[in-house]
Amino acid sequence: MLPQIGKLLIISGVLLVLIGILLLFTDKIPFLGKMPGDIVYRKGNFTLYVPIVSMILLSLLLTIILKLFRK
After folding, report:
1. Are 15 and 39 contained in the same domain?
2. Which of 5, 25, 30, 71 is 20 to 30 Å from 39 by CA-CA measure?
3. pTM for the full model?
């Protein structure tokens, strides 16, 4: 039981580090968040940003990468 929890904690930690690194470099990816279909609503000092197309593209890319690693 404890070795399984240890493996889960290690995997979770690695995933958090990878997500943190990805968040650091998202400004350097020119098309991410600026694609046609991404919704930006500005009114006064309020801005609502919904990157629908960017999320779909990222989801497809991650799906392909994960399927390649499973085989």
Report:
1. no
2. 25
3. 0.53
Average pLDDT of the segment spanning 31-49: 83
pLDDT exceeds 70 at position 43: yes
Are 24 and 31 in contact by the 8 Å Cβ rule? The answer is no
Whether residue 1 sits in one domain with residue 25: yes
- Scanning the structure block, which residue is given the tokens 């039981």? 1
> Domain residues for 15?
1-30
- The residue among 26, 54, 28, 24 whose CA lies nearest residue 39 is 54
Tell me the H-state helices in 1-71: 2-24, 52-70
Same structural domain for residues 2 and 20? yes
CB 51 within 8 A of CB 38: yes
